[in-house]
């Protein structure tokens, strides 16, 4: 009789292959979840939080050094890597951070200049100050209107020449004409 392989070995390899296939399928699902995660959407339930965060937790268990070592071992001798993925990612992240920092600083400077320009050119008073200024202007306008109404009507240049003729006639009669008489004559309507 031929020796049969122990029955425990065959199911073990089959179960190992199933477990390996299952873990690869789960890893692929986790990768899909990470790539399609809605980052702006809040978690609705505890299970939702676990479903969204578990793939990140699983993939974060691999350290960058382990991945780099595996990658370096898999690379052929003729095709050596100039730098590891981790180094490249760190360099790209640093470059992007520097670019964003300089852009933020430029925007802050522009905003500061605009605010300074607005402050120096367009100083706007407080609402209470605006109300006070409006009240003062109203009072000044009312006083000006009252003084204009209280003033006697001023004769035009033609009527002044007529009044000079009248004054001249009065002075030819021999009656002395003083400045008070002239102002009284000018103030009256000589119609």
Automatic annotation (TrEMBL):
Residues 30-149 form the GLTSCR protein conserved domain. Residues 1-22, 145-191 are annotated as: Disordered. Residues 172-181 have a biased composition (Low complexity). It comes from the Eukaryota. Pfam families: GLTSCR1 (PF15249). Residues 11-22 have a biased composition (Basic and acidic residues). InterPro entries: GSCR1_dom. This is GLTSCR protein conserved domain-containing protein. It comes from Volvox carteri f. nagariensis.
């Amino acid at each position: 009789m031929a020796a049969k392989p122990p029955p425990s070995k065959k199911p073990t390899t089959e179960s190992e292959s199933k477990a390996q296939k299952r873990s690869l399928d789960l890893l692929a699902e986790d990768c899909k979840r990470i790539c399609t995660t809605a980052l702006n959407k809040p978690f609705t339930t505890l299970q939702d939080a676990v479903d969204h965060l578990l793939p990140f937790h699983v993939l974060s268990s691999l350290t960058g050094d382990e991945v780099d070592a595996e990658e370096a071992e898999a690379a052929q001798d003729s095709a050596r890597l100039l730098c590891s993925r981790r180094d490249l990612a760190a360099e790209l992240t640093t470059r992007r951070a520097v670019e964003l920092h300089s852009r933020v600083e430029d925007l802050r400077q522009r905003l500061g200049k605009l605010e300074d320009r607005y402050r120096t050119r367009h100083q706007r008073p407080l609402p209470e100050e605006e109300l006070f200024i409006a009240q003062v202007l109203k009072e000044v306008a009312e006083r000006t209107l009252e003084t204009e109404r209280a003033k006697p009507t001023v004769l035009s240049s033609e009527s002044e020449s007529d009044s000079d003729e009248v004054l001249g006639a009065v002075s030819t009669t021999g009656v002395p004409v003083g400045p008070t008489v002239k102002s009284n004559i000018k103030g009256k309507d000589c119609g």
